[in-house]
Amino acid sequence: MPRLLPPLLALLASPLLLGIINRTRAGIAGRRGQPLLQSYYDLARLLRKGAVYSRGTTWVFRAAPVIVLATTISAVLLLPFAGWSAPLAFRYDLVLFAYLLGAARFALLLGALDTGSSFEGMGASRELLYACLAEPALFLALLAMVSDSGALSLTGLLAAAPPVAATLRHPAATVLIAVTLFVVLLAENARVPFDDPSTHLELTMVHEVMVLDHSGPDLALLQYASALKLWALAVLVVGVIVPAGGAAPWVIALYWLAGMVLVAVVVGAVESSMARLRLPRTPQLLVGASLLAVLALLLRLGSPT
Predict the structure, then answer these.
(1) Phi/psi of residue 185, each to 5°?
(2) Cα separation of 93 and 99, whole Å?
(3) Structural domain for 90, as ranges
(4) 240-254 residue pLDDT tens
(5) Is 161 helix (H, G, I), strand (E, B) or coil?
(6) What is the CA radius of gyration of the chain?
(7) Among the listed residues 244, 286, 11, 256, the one whose alpha carbon sits nearest the alpha carbon of residue 128
(8) Which of 289, 278, 286 is nearest to 132 (CA)?
(9) Phi, psi at 81, each rounded to 5°
(10) 20 to 30 Å CA-CA from 165: which of 67, 73, 245, 262?
């Protein structure tokens, strides 16, 4: 039963992160904002509607939302939480995790290109650019984590983490890895400064322009998959900072839940404090995140154990 807790928590609570982000943005701007559970209401509303398909689309467009959600859920099944092992844990599952997220992105890109829309093709090309730069940063951050613990699975890296004293053995490297993963989280989830999820100007959209033609239950599947992806990458950020050992299980669970809320609050604060970067600047940010991961790797390899 404990192995089922991480995916069940992700399936139930992932849309809540979006609500926390929206409320944070509204609070900083001095507004009341949407209800905290607005994401759940939106999903329920979309599920009650019917889907509309263009005559120019094929089965690729119809299958894309299902594939995106299925691959994202599969990636979530590889993630532990607060010391609980993942339902699926094996050597090198961290590589499969990254490629499952890549498969979800590939299905979304194919669905966007299948519409034949120039705007969706533009968004797909930008999304592919971000992916080519975000994946190296993700792999380098994971490699830096592996170099310290020696574990070759996500459960070994996150759920079997040592106590606080051992976790803070390389504090500078830990901070660099967390910053790298946070930048990857922003890029993979199309958040500011890479994209603005609240914009409706087609020339500036990246992720949102790729789902313009989806409606009803298909759009609900894509939005739910996006929330799960946000949860999955937030778990990586929290797992780097918050240890999974050295305290009672319920205390660790509270720490991890507080860490997830903190990640959502920081995302909302970032979106409230800065605007979307110009397209030529965003690759520089992702390359900088990769360099931070390389520096963290060198610090951990060069420090005595």
Answers:
(1) -60, -45
(2) 10
(3) 2-298
(4) 988 776 678 888 999
(5) coil
(6) 19
(7) 286
(8) 286
(9) -160, 125
(10) 262
